[in-house]
Amino acid sequence: MTLALLATSHSPLLDHVDLPADVSGELTEAFAQARAFVHDFDPDVVVNFGPDHYNGFFYRLMPPFCIGYAAESIGDYGSQAGPLNVPEDIARGIAEAVIAEGVDLAVSLDMQVDHGAVQPMEIVYGDITAKPFVPIFMNSVAPPFTPLARVRRLGEAAGRHLATLDRKVLLIASGGLSHDPPVPRLSNATADQRRMLMGEGGPLTPEAREARQQRVISAAREFAAGTATIQDLAPEWDRELLRILASGDLSPFDAWDPGEMTRIAGNSSHEVRTWIAAYAALGAAGPYSVRYSYYRPIRELIAGFALTTATPA
Ligand SMILES: O=C(O)/C=C/c1cccc(O)c1O
Ligand SMILES: [Fe+2]
Fold it and tell me: Relative to the CA of 103, which of 53, 63, 66, 296 has its CA 20 to 30 Å away?
């Protein structure tokens, strides 16, 4: 058994906006660190904790967590589309172990994932099929949200099981930190948006997909220019999150209230659930140390953008 962890914010805007040269340079360096770390570890399998943005999971039936026994990337924002290389036996083993510990985890034999799940694989390998890949969906945009204590328990149960495998497992978390991109919300949806949130009408037409993406790209440009109405990033909240994750004691998250998270850090701040689950999984196998940590609030990406790597201490 060996576990290692890469946790990173994602942003579909990475390829769609211009970044100041210093920010771009920092990200190039952070991604190079991630690549070197992962290539050095050379995992047998990746277990990926990722959100979805109403591309694979809808209000027709919205589980808090779901593991894919088979999965396909839909290819939004120009991300790589197509089937993922999911080892069904490993996915089933995780599902059975987590459920046996009393954490209900839905399973899918046909999971659809978006940029939120696959971007780290694209950054590290340039190919989402480069390694066997088990996707674990964490609901991070569709209220109501399960308590963080349960997210932690899911991660711990998965980690305890993975620690028994004779494999090198890379845990990836993709999401967060504070951010509030204009993803439609049920609470103030128009009739058309409500149908989209429910997953009615099948996949978006290319025109509707383009319009949806352009709305987010425009919002990012306005946010960077200081003219957007979306909620601001919350660097202090982000830094406190990173501090707790690095401490090895994740129990303080149990007191974090989902409503407060939204109020302070934005509607999509719940993507940090992926980080808490992945760090909990690593911690379940023993003490760990953070090896690399990058953080910067980047309005052009609508992201409190962080990237960390960690290994057993
Ligand atoms: O348009 C979407 O579905 C999401 C966009 C987005 C923008 C910025 C940061 C993120 O984590 C996102 O998912
Ligand atoms: Fe996201």
Answer: 53
CB-CB contact of 184 with 18 (8 Å): no
Q: What is the pLDDT of residues 212-236, one digit of tens each?
A: 999 999 999 999 999 998 999 999 9
Closest CA to 84 of 54, 51, 53, 109: 109
Sequential DSSP letters for 18-63: ---HHHHHHHHHHHHHHHHHHHHH--SEEEEEE---SSS-BTTB--
Please name the residues in contact with 2: beta carbons below 8 A apart, sequence gap of 6 or more: 41, 168, 169, 312
Instruction: Break the chain into its structural domains and give their ranges.
Output: 2-312
Write down the pTM of the prediction.
Answer: 0.98
Q: Are residues 10 and 114 in contact, defined by beta-carbon separation less than 8 angstroms?
A: no
The residue to mutate among 54, 113, 183, 305, having the most atoms of ligand 1 within 8 angstroms of its beta carbon, is 183
pLDDT of 169 reads 98
pLDDT digits (tens, 9 = 90+) for 162-177: 999 999 999 999 999 9
Architecture, CATH, for domain 2-312: 3-Layer(aba) Sandwich (3.40)
The protein residue with its alpha carbon nearest to ligand 1, atom 3, reads 53
